[in-house]
Amino acid sequence: MTVLIAGCGEDDFKNEARAPVRVALTGVIQDDRVTVSPAKIGAGPVEIAISNQTDSERTITLEGESITEQQGPVQPGDTATIQKTLEPGSYEVRAGSKKAVRKEIQPAVLRIGKARKNSNNELLQP
């Protein structure tokens, strides 16, 4: 008996470039400013983990280019994460409060440069 499998190999696998590896950024909200490190990276997927080290709950906002993303409220001592794919440009990470404050917390500025290379040759990636 002969078995013929039809359609096998008809649709070629498209070898499209995968997205760059996600870069982990860390941030801290302090009473006078927000810091995020590193502050300069190439365009692509990012994950920003921000710790609230103030005595008040804060809402975290990532804004720039055509993106506005909010997380929170984040309780004192707690952490929030923002995951986004960022295009080249300048972005601000701000920490807002529902309570009136004497002085605004200075935002962190992220400088996003040209796109990072794809992750096609990176091992152990999804």
Topology at a glance:
Elements: E1 23-29, E2 34-37, E3 40-52, E4 58-64, E5 67-74, E6 79-86, E7 89-96, E8 108-115
Parallel strand pairs: 1-3, 3-8
Antiparallel strand pairs: 1-2, 3-6, 4-5, 4-7, 7-8
The helix-and-strand class reads mainly beta
SS summary, helix count: 0
What is the annotated CATH architecture? Sandwich
CATH topology: Immunoglobulin-like
H/E element order: EEEEEEEE
Poorly predicted tracts of residues? none
Task: Give the C-alpha Rg.
Answer: 21 Å
Largest sheet: 8 strands, mixed
Count all strands and give the number.
8
Distance between the termini: 41 Å
Percent strand equals: over 45%
**CATH uppermost class:** Mainly Beta
Roughly what is the average pLDDT, rounded to an integer?
84
